[in-house]
Known about the structure:
Elements: E1 2-6, E2 16-21, H1 30-39, H2 41-47, E3 58-62, E4 70-75, H3 86-104, E5 109-112, H4 124-138, E6 144-149, H5 152-168
Parallel strand pairs: 1-6, 2-4, 2-5, 5-6
Antiparallel strand pairs: 3-4
Amino acid sequence: MIEIIQGDITTLHVDAIVNAANGALRGGGGVDGAIHRAAGPGLLQELKRFPGCPTGDAVITRGYNLPAKHVIHAVGPIWYGGTRMEDQLLAKTYHKSFLRATESGDIRSIAFPAISTGAYRFPKREATMIALTAMLEHEKEFDRIVACVFDEELAALYRGTLDFLRRRL
Length: 169
Ligand code: APR
């Protein structure tokens, strides 16, 4: 089942939340900052085990003080105008996040923010289509897939896009 929730991903009681991280894996602003603040310092300590993470890939850690058991730190592409395989890289970021969840073996519910649509400036309409297409491809592997978007306008875009994609399938 795919759910669209407007709100703060750090509050969700799911097995894993996905973080929109950067390649250094040392925290940042946006949802990355919110997740580190809510999880506490243990998150950064565990992330220091990783040398970094390439764009399009993801690493998994514990969730510490978050309600979620795990955090999957995914590195989405920066938008450079669409000339550097950004679409394919964003899709890969979602697929790799699902792979890390499957590998963990204890994740039946997973929530995603709108990866790359903030500081990384990915166009919202294209990013939403890529996100929901990937979620639909993995829908049967999980009990719950949540698209957790922060603002109402984006939530409306997610709802309209999911309706469109479901009618097309
Ligand atoms: N819960 C859910 N969504 C959130 C939250 C939150 N608490 N805070 C922000 N968002 C939304 C933003 O509104 C945006 O739609 O997450 C989406 C992704 O925005 P960013 O967090 O800016 O992430 P991104 O565009 O992928 O840029 C990543 O920003 O914070 C740094 O370290 C991060 O360098 C990395 C870059």
